[in-house]
Specification:
5-stranded mixed beta sheet, 471 residues, Immunoglobulin-like, mainly beta, 29 strands, 5 helices
Length: 471
């Protein structure tokens, strides 16, 4: 079979509509534009310009990561960033006599599946070059889009019977949209500053909210800025109006007050497991049967409150086949991608300064093989990295550490040396055996002598047994 090499070439092609997009940063980038945060200037630009210098809104970018593939493919996983309405091109080179048919399938998308894929292949002298292009359409992002949206696409080479998983990071919102500045000096404290634009309070208007409104201003319908926001104790969404929209059962300014209504409070949580209440990762709320997961443990961001606070390690161990072998791969029966171990990547922190990767371990009961691995989840896809593949476990208390093993060894040596010393001492101090056939022993005769017993008393009567008979 032919060996395939991958060459990544990024090609950006902006499709920018000629319309007024200066009022909203999210809409600007969704149309492929660049947003300038300087107040009082043009905000939405069709392309990067020095006129805004370093004040363009910076979108999140994916880490350039890739995994080595099989004997047929030199890579089986890659991550790249793509701007909305922009084109990204992946060039794949391989050796083959003829072109390989290519099938592209979207495995998962956190927004819509409105992306356009195309591929072309040229072969010359048994060297083929395939170009895979993707462009998110203007309808890809929805109103709930965030700066971090993902698409997983599987590129399958039919004639090679091999595939590569590509992860695209596509931003559907500006990070600055989630960071409004209320009562901004730029807006004369009559509004809040969002991405360089003043959003005036009721009764004020103008670019800098310094003009009294002449006509009543229609109320602005708040939109969701951050889902399950930490500002709302993860019990509600943070809205563009600067308040929390609490989930059912929660109330208060920060959604931190439990509202059970008329429910009984003595029912008790029924969601228990071998690890204890709420899988050992939480406790029941005051209302009765709902789990409240811990927020101060490693991997807390992955706990599933609706599933008994199950953590990511428990989820991965449901797919034991993915832990049965080392090396990067995509587990076909599970939504899990196994990445090559990278210590630097394993120490990543998220925007809340939490560890992105959590430590897990799994012991195969049959082989007693202990697997140490790290796990993280992005939307619906779980990534794992094997840290130590097969560390044989030992019973607790026996040889638990190198120091204990050395002490047991020294004790065994001392016991063995003591037994040898006792055996040698007995050998050299034994009583010699006597030879009874020697002449000295043969000439010894028994000495004959009689002595009257002073305690002897003469019998005074006798009895003859009538049954006695002489021989």
């Amino acid at each position: 079979m032919a060996r395939v090499w991958f060459l990544v070439i990024v090609s950006i092609q902006i499709v920018f509509a000629k319309r007024n997009l200066n009022a909203n940063c999210d809409m600007c980038i969704q149309k492929g534009g660049y947003w300038c945060k300087l107040s009082g200037t043009q905000h939405c630009w069709p392309e990067f310009s020095d006129a805004c210098a370093k004040n363009f809104e910076e979108l999140p970018s994916a880490m350039l990561r890739s995994n080595n593939g099989t004997k047929l493919l030199s890579i089986n996983y890659i991550e790249q960033s793509v701007r909305p309405s922009s084109q990204y091109e992946l060039t794949i080179e391989y050796n083959a006599a003829t072109e390989s048919q290519i099938k592209i399938e979207i495995v998962n998308s956190t927004q819509t599946r409105n992306l356009k894929f195309s591929d072309t292949t040229k072969c010359e002298n048994s060297e083929c070059t395939a170009k895979i292009a993707v462009r998110p359409l203007e309808t890809f992002c929805t109103s709930s889009g965030s700066p971090y949206e993902y698409v997983y696409a599987n590129i399958f080479f039919v004639d090679l019977n091999e595939s590569t998983l590509v992860k695209y990071l596509i931003s559907c919102a500006c990070p600055c949209s989630a960071e409004p500045e209320p009562n901004s000096e730029t807006c004369h404290k009559n509004g809040k500053l969002i991405c360089g634009i003043c959003e005036c309070y009721d009764g004020w208007s103008g670019s800098f909210c310094n003009e009294a409104a002449q006509t009543p201003i229609a109320p602005v319908v708040p939109t969701i800025v951050e889902k399950k926001s930490p500002k709302c104790e993860y019990h509600g969404h943070w809205l563009s109006s600067g308040i929390c929209d609490c989930f059912k059962g929660w109330t208060g300014k920060n959604c931190n007050v439990l509202n059970c209504g008329r429910r009984r409070g003595d029912i008790g949580c029924s969601r228990t497991s071998e690890l204890g209440e709420c899988s050992g990762n939480g406790e029941c709320d005051a209302c009765g049967d709902a789990c409240v997961c811990k927020t101060d443990i490693e991997g807390a961001q992955y706990l599933e409150a609706d599933n008994n606070c199950v953590d990511l390690c428990m989820t991965v161990e449901q797919c034991k086949d993915c832990l049965s072998s080392n090396g990067p791969m995509q587990c076909s029966n599970c939504n899990i991608v196994k990445d090559a171990y990278n210590r630097t990547v394993s120490e990543e922190l998220d925007y809340l300064n939490r560890r992105v990767w959590m430590h897990c371990s799994y012991i195969n009961v049959t082989t007693e093989c202990k697997v140490l691995y790290l796990a993280m989840r992005e939307n619906e896809v779980v990534h794992i990295m094997i840290e130590d593949y097969c560390e044989v476990s030992t019973p607790a208390g026996l040889f638990a550490s190198p120091v204990t093993s050395v002490l047991f060894g020294l004790l065994a040596v001392i016991c063995a040396a003591s037994l040898v010393a006792v055996a040698v001492w007995k050998y050299f101090n034994r009583i010699p055996a006597q030879d009874l056939i020697k002449p000295g022993y043969m000439s010894v005769e028994a000495a004959t002598s009689t002595v009257q017993n002073p305690a002897y008393v003469t019998p005074i009567s006798s009895f003859i047994n009538p049954t006695y008979q002489k021989c």
